[in-house]
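Example with several molecule types.
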Amino acid sequence: MAARIAVLAEAKDGAVRKIALEMLAEARRLAGVSGGEVDAIVLGSVPAEESTRLAQHGADRILQVEGDFLEPYATEASAEAVRVAVEHGKPETLLIGATAHGKDLAPKVAARLRVGLASDCVGFDDEAGELTARRPIFAGKAFGRVTWNEKRPRIATVRPNTFAPLDPDASRRAETERLALGNVSVRARVTGFEKSEGEMLDLTEANIIVSGGRAMQGPDNFELLRKLCKVLGATLGASRAAVDAGWIDHSHQVGQTGKVVNPTLYFAIGISGAIQHLAGMSSSRTVVAINKDRDAPIFKIATYGIVGDLYEIVPILTEELQKVLKE
Amino acid sequence: MNLLVFVKQVPDTETRIQLKGGQIDTSSVKWVANPYDEFAIEEALRIRERLGQGKVTVLSLGPDRVKEAIKYALSLGADEGVHLRGDGLALSDPLTVATVLAAAARKAGFDLILTGKQGVDHDWSQVGIMLAELLDLPHVSVVVHLEVDPTAKKGKAKREVEGGAETVEFELPAVITAQKGLNEPRYASLKGIMAVKKKVIPEWSPADLGLDASTLTEGAASIRFVDFSLPPARATGKVLEGDPREASRELVRLLREEAKVI
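Resulting structure tokens for the full complex:
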């Protein structure tokens, strides 16, 4: 049976987020297996060029739901809007980005429709219509393959940076169908936003992460790592030890009670590599460890390691990187 | 004010996960209260203390061992605990779990429900939000700051999002899912530990909650695990020692030419 797959195209400041394009690529691949079609669901209004972008990246049709309380984000309104789009489009599968809003929205939609939700998926496999999803559990210490019951749609949230967007195809077109969101009661709404320090990308979206641990000894020494971050365009992370000591805000924590990250390059500086930290970062492509202790567990999983005093090495490394990256 | 806290019992975060017969081997696991649920318990206790009134009830769904998680919450100062019996239920299915918790919440009565943003075992991050939907309540997830005003039936929360924190204003009753940073959980006092011994923890079965257990079994689950695997072992890397300048230069070269990541 030809499967219809829908992708919720989350927008931020009028632009479709990259995760939407990543999911469109995977949706196209899955649709290709069964000869199906791909819908992009848009909540609220986005500029016309964004609809074009969705089409060029793989959407066959755009379902645009318009109504009150869709911007700024309110879970209750967005959940109902997705329900309206699902009722209209009748997808077999619905993909939602595992972003802050996506993770807040997807369980509400799944419970409303009484269907199963696989969260934080990193891979899909379609064998003759039997879809399974692969997802990390125990913060990545293990993986589980999950499958849904017969109810549709199957819903999955997809971890950012898992799939590569398709190259845009300028010849692709998609018609837009406008749907109206009825009256919804909104009992929780966003009334403000506070930006966190710096201009850094969030840990879950970062390509490069520089993390500090217990050996940072206090909040002031994180300045060294901030400098390295600046040179690399990296996001600052930390181990639980550093967070629990109060040296840095918990939003920087990488590990089982913090963020699970998958950057291309991860620096573990003065981090011994407790099992709960390794769980959160061991899917990073390249891991660099800098540690005094040659026997620290972090060296067992590091692609490259330097044994030595971080206070000596980090400034020199920052300087050397700066030289090379300036070229 | 009736405060309900849902607590899950999970393997300690120091646990090394191993497979046995294709399943997660839990034979040598140390079971603890889910770390994110600890923030929920603490917040409920603080709300009760701030208001100078109210009742904190802690509920946990699962086999007999989850009584330990309930006792732990009682030792911290929760007023009552309830064990929700999960025999034969699809406890790996968030929608099934949320269905049982919703029925338990209705039976217990509530003004505010708190739980952790996710269990650190299956990492679904779904149950608290599904619970809110099934009870037709608003929710705020991943909360790092909370203020509630029971007289005005209103609350204000901060939740963590990419690059910052959103302020969310909501109506009570509501469901809150707790993120690390919401508070600093207390330790149990000796007095608290002694007091637990006198507490009776009632058991509620699905039937006590007016649920038909046959609709909550693995066969009826919305989602289920097919199999489990461990991540591939990482190849042994290169370790550089000696002169910091030389080692740094070599590292930069490797990152550029071998790993091609900068």
